[in-house]
Design a protein that fits this description.
heterodimer; A: alpha/beta; five-stranded parallel sheet; B: alpha/beta; Rossmann fold; 5 helices
Chain lengths: 657, 149
C-alpha cells in the first residue's frame, strides 16, 4: 500500500494555528505513507497538480488531504484522483480548518489535535476500497410547489426550455402575494399589470400543467425520480366546463369575507378570487355555502344548467405525478401584529397592516382604490416600521428587507391621493440598499413625508383620533403624534405551508425559520437534498427582483439535472456479506427507503434467507449497520473496521481492536 | 488534577451536526481542542461498539450528535439513535463507566454557536468528572487471566 498525505496551509488560515511543517514530518513516519507534503493552497491548480504528479511518480494508491471540511472540497480532490487514474473513493479528508485551526487558539493543542485527525484519516484510508457509482435514468419533468411570482418564473423558465412542469398551488389561483400589491417600489410599476401577463402565459403554456387548489400530500423516490402525490381539494366546479361567465355569483345568496382583499370586503360563497385568476374557474367555499352546510339552496346549479359546470358530487382527488426535480417556492406570510399588542391591531379598526393598505389603495380593492377608513379620508397618517422584524421580543431577529421601501412607496401613494395629508414614518434605520432605492427614499422625503427615528411604545385612543407615542431618538424627546390611520409595516415570516413541505421533503430551517440553503454564498438555491431547489421568500425575505432572479437560478439548477439522461446514485451504500448474514431482517425493518429486501440464496447446500441491498434505493445513511448482530451488513467507506480503526487513533492510546 | 485535559470524541452526522461544527469554524466561534470529531453520514450509523471502542482507546467522554428530532436527513435515523442511546446508558453502567460521560445532543446545520457552546460545556463537564480510569484495570485484568490459563 502506498499512501500520499497532503497538508494545506490555506494561506494562513491553517498555518497560523497549526504547525503544518511538523505535521508533515509526523505524517511521513506513519505506516504505508510514502510521501507527505505541505503546500500553500492544496485546492489551487498547482496544489492539485502536485497530488496528480505524486500519484504517478510514487505510484500512490491512496490519498489523504489534510485541509478544510470535506463538505467543501471532497469532490475537488476526488476528481484529482480520478484524473490520475485512481478510484475516487480511495480518498479521505482530515478537517483541520473548520474543526481545528478556526475554532482553537492555542497552537500547541491545535497541532496536537491535527496530528490525531491526520493519523485517523491515514488509518481509515488504508482500509478503504474502490467503489463505483451506478446510474439511474432521470424523469425530465419538474414539480414547482407554490404559484407566486417565484413559482411562476421558475415554471416559465423550465417550460420555455422545453420541459414539462407541474405547478402546484394551494389557492384556487396562481399569483401569490404579488397580485395583492398595488404598486411596486421603487419604479411604481403596477403590480398586477406586470404579473397578469406572466400568469396567463403560465395558464396557456403547453408545457405547464397547473394543479391549483391542491397540496402535495406525499413524496417518494430520490433525485431524478420522485413520485409525488398531489391532493386536489374539491372546487365543486368542473374546471373543464366552467367558462367563468359569473352568472352563478349573482344568484348566490350567501356572503362571506373575501380573502383576496384580506377580509376587508365580502364575496359570494361561489367565487373567483379576482378577475384575472388563472385558471379562470369558479370555486365554492365549503365553509359558507348554504347547500354544503345545510343541504338547501343549489341556486347556482340551476342557473348553470347550460354548461352543467357545478358538481356538488365532486370528491377530493389524489393525483400521482413523476418528476426528476422539485422547486420549493412556498413564499411568506406577513407577521401577525397581534404579537405586538401595544399597537392595538384588531382593537382599533384604523390600525392596519402594510398588506391591508395595499388592498385599500388598490383599484381592485374594497374601496376601489380610495383611501377611506371608517368612511373618512384620513388627514394624519402614521407608518410604523419593523413590526415583527429586527425584534427579539417576537423571536424575529432578522430584517425583512422589503418594509422600508414598501413603507416609502405607501407614503408616496398617500401623498398622491391625499396631497394635504400629514405623514409620519417611525423607523429604526432606513435600509435602502437596492437599485434605485436610495433615490426613491430621497424622493419620498422631498415630498414632505416626516421620518422620525424611534420605535413607538404605545397607541391609544383620544376622542376620534389615535395617539402614537414614541421617543424620537434623534431629538431625545417623547413625542405624541395624532393619527386617523396607522399602517404597520409588518415583516415577513415563512408561510404556514412551509411546515408541511419541510416534513415531506426533509428540508432544514435556518435560525430565522426560513428554509436552509446548501451553502449561504455559493449554493443559495440548492438544498442539502439532491434534486430539491429553493426559490423566493421561502428561503428568506426578498423583494420581487431578487425573487425573480432566484427563481430563474433554481430553474436553471433543475434544468441542469433533468437535461441529463442519467444521474449518478450514491456509491457509499450498504452491502451484505451473505456468508455472515443470518436473515433476521432487522436491517430490513429500519431502512427508511425500503432499500433492503430479504432474498433466498443457497448457502452451504441449504436454501436460506439473507438480506440484499438495492443500490438504486440506498441513500447511504448506514443506519442498518448497528442493527446487525453478525456485522454482515456494512456501509461502504464507513465500515465498522474503518471507523473503529479511526477511533483507536483518535483516543490516543493507540489500542488495537 | 487541575491540569487534566480530557479527550472527547464527537460522533457527528454529516448533514446537521458536522455542518453545524463547520459553521462554528466559519464563524470563528472558539471551543477547546479536546473535542475530536468523527463524521458519519447519520447519527443512526453510530454503533454502540464504536462508543466502547472510543473509551477503550483512551477517550474520557463521548458526544453523539445528529439532526433535531423530525429533521433527520434520512427521515428517522436520529430516532434510532435516541432509543439506542437510552438502552446503551444501562450497558455503560454495567461496564463500570459513568453514563454521564456519554452525551446525546442535537445540533442543526445552522447552529454554529450552539455547537461551540455545547463543546465548551461538555469539556468542562468531563474535566470535572476526571480521567476515565476504570476501563484500564479491567482490561489488564482480563488479559492477565488469559495469560495465566
Amino acid at each position: 500500500m502506498r499512501i500520499g498525505v497532503y497538508i494545506c496551509h490555506c494561506g494562513i488560515n491553517i498555518k497560523a494555528t497549526v504547525d503544518v511543517a511538523q505535521l508533515s514530518t509526523f505524517a511521513e513516519k506513519l505506516p504505508y505513507v510514502k510521501v507527505a507534503r505541505d503546500y500553500l493552497y492544496m485546492c489551487s491548480d498547482p496544489g492539485q497538480n502536485l497530488i496528480k504528479k505524486d500519484i504517478e511518480e510514487f505510484k500512490l494508491d491512496r490519498v489523504v488531504v489534510v485541509a478544510c471540511s470535506p463538505r467543501m472540497h471532497e469532490l475537488t480532490f476526488r476528481k484529482v484522483l480520478e484524473s490520475a487514474g485512481l478510484n475516487r473513493y480511495l480518498f479521505e479528508m482530515a478537517n483541520i480548518r473548520e474543526q481545528c485551526s478556526w475554532v482553537h487558539q492555542d497552537k500547541k493543542s491545535a497541532t496536537k489535535k491535527a496530528h490525531s485527525l491526520l493519523a485517523a484519516s491515514v488509518h481509515k484510508v488504508a482500509l478503504l476500497e474502490p467503489l463505483t457509482e451506478k446510474e439511474v435514468s432521470v424523469t425530465p419533468t419538474v414539480l414547482v410547489i407554490g404559484g407566486g411570482i417565484a413559482g411562476i418564473q421558475a415554471a416559465l423558465d423550465i417550460a420555455d426550455a422545453g420541459y414539462k412542469v407541474y405547478l402546484v398551488e394551494k389557492d384556487p389561483t396562481i399569483g401569490g402575494h404579488m397580485i395583492q400589491l398595488d404598486k411596486t417600489f421603487p419604479t411604481l410599476d403596477c403590480s398586477a399589470c406586470i404579473l397578469t401577463p406572466k400568469m396567463s402565459e403560465v395558464g396557456n403554456h403547453p408545457n405547464i400543467e397547473i394543479i391549483s387548489y391542491a397540496e402535495v400530500a406525499d413524496v417518494k423516490g430520490y433525485v431524478g425520480n420522485f413520485e409525488i402525490t398531489v391532493r386536489k381539494k374539491t372546487r365543486y366546479i368542473d374546471e373543464t366546463k366552467c367558462n367563468a361567465c359569473g352568472l352563478c355569483v349573482s344568484y348566490c345568496p350567501i356572503e362571506t369575507p373575501n380573502p383576496y382583499n384580506l377580509n376587508l370586503s365580502k364575496m359570494k360563497s361561489i367565487y373567483i378570487p379576482y378577475a384575472q385568476a388563472v385558471p379562470a374557474c369558479y370555486v365554492i367555499d365549503p365553509e359558507s355555502c348554504r347547500y354544503l352546510l345545510k343541504k338547501e339552496c343549489r341556486q347556482c346549479e340551476q342557473v348553470c344548467q347550460g354548461l352543467k359546470a357545478i358538481d356538488f358530487k365532486q370528491k377530493e382527488q389524489a393525483i400521482t405525478i413523476q418528476v426528476g426535480a422539485i422547486i420549493v417556492a412556498t413564499g411568506f406570510d406577513t407577521f401577525d401584529p397581534k404579537g405586538k399588542p401595544e399597537f392595538g391591531y384588531a382593537l382599533y379598526p384604523n390600525v392596519i397592516t402594510g398588506l391591508e393598505f395595499e388592498r385599500l389603495v388598490n383599484s381592485s380593492g374594497p374601496t376601489m382604490g380610495e383611501i377611506v377608513i371608517q368612511g373618512k379620508k384620513p388627514k394624519d397618517v402614521v407608518f410604523i416600521q419593523c413590526v415583527g422584524s429586527r425584534d427579539k421580543t417576537v423571536g424575529n431577529e432578522y430584517c425583512s428587507r422589503v418594509c422600508c421601501m414598501y413603507t416609502a412607496k405607501q407614503a408616496h401613494l398617500v401623498k398622491e391621493k391625499i396631497p394635504h395629508a400629514n405623514l409620519t414614518i417611525f423607523y429604526m434605520d432606513v435600509r435602502a440598499f437596492g437599485k434605485g432605492f436610495e433615490e426613491f427614499y430621497n424622493r419620498v422625503k422631498m415630498e414632505g413625508v416626516k421620518y422620525r427615528r424611534g420605535n413607538p411604545s404605545e397607541i391609544y385612543k383620544k376622542g376620534d383620533k389615535l395617539i402614537v407615542k414614541a421617543e424620537d431618538t434623534l431629538l431625545g424627546e417623547l413625542v405624541e403624534v395624532e393619527a386617523d390611520l396607522v399602517v404597520l409595516a409588518v415583516g415577513l415570516v415563512p408561510s404556514k405551508s412551509t411546515e408541511e413541505v419541510i416534513k415531506l421533503l426533509k428540508l432544514s430551517r435556518s435560525p430565522d425559520q426560513f428554509l436552509l440553503e446548501a451553502h449561504p454564498k455559493l449554493r443559495p438555491v440548492d438544498t442539502a437534498s439532491d434534486g430539491i431547489f429553493l426559490a423566493g421568500c421561502c428561503q428568506g425575505p426578498k423583494d420581487i427582483p431578487d425573487t425573480v432572479a432566484q427563481a430563474s437560478g433554481a430553474a436553471s439548477k433543475a434544468l441542469i439535472l433533468i437535461s441529463h439522461e442519467k444521474v449518478k446514485t450514491e456509491a457509499q451504500t450498504s452491502i451484505v456479506n451473505e456468508s455472515l448474514c443470518r436473515g433476521c431482517g432487522f436491517c430490513v425493518a429500519v431502512c427508511p427507503y425500503g432499500a433492503i429486501e430479504p432474498k433466498m440464496i443457497e448457502k452451504a447446500g441449504e436454501v436460506t434467507k439473507v438480506a440484499s441491498v438495492n443500490d438504486a434505493l440506498c441513500k447511504g445513511c448506514g443506519m442498518c449497520v448497528p442493527t446487525c448482530f453478525s456485522g454482515a451488513i456494512q456501509q461502504k467507506s464507513f465500515t465498522d473496521n474503518q471507523l473503529l480503526s479511526m477511533l483507536s487513533v483518535l483516543g490516543e492510546k493507540n489500542v488495537s481492536f | 488534577m487541575s491540569h487534566f485535559e480530557p479527550t472527547i470524541i464527537a460522533f457527528l452526522c454529516n448533514w446537521c451536526s458536522y455542518a453545524g461544527a463547520d459553521l462554528s469554524g466559519t464563524s470563528r466561534y472558539k471551543y477547546p481542542a479536546n473535542i475530536k470529531a468523527l463524521r458519519v453520514m447519520c447519527s443512526g450509523r453510530v454503533n454502540p461498539l464504536m462508543i466502547v471502542q472510543a473509551f477503550r482507546a483512551g477517550a474520557d467522554g463521548v458526544v453523539i450528535s445528529g439532526c433535531h428530532p423530525g429533521d433527520c436527513h434520512y427521515s428517522q435515523g436520529n430516532y434510532f439513535t435516541r432509543r439506542r442511546f437510552i438502552l446503551f446508558r444501562k450497558f455503560l453502567e454495567f461496564l463500570g463507566i459513568d453514563p454521564e460521560r456519554v452525551v446525546l445532543s442535537w445540533v442543526s446545520a445552522s447552529e454554529g454557536k450552539r455547537f461551540a457552546d455545547l463543546m465548551e460545556e461538555l469539556t468542562d463537564k468531563i474535566r470535572n468528572l476526571g480521567p476515565l480510569k476504570n476501563f484500564t484495570p479491567l482490561e489488564t485484568e482480563a488479559r492477565g487471566e488469559i495469560n495465566d490459563s
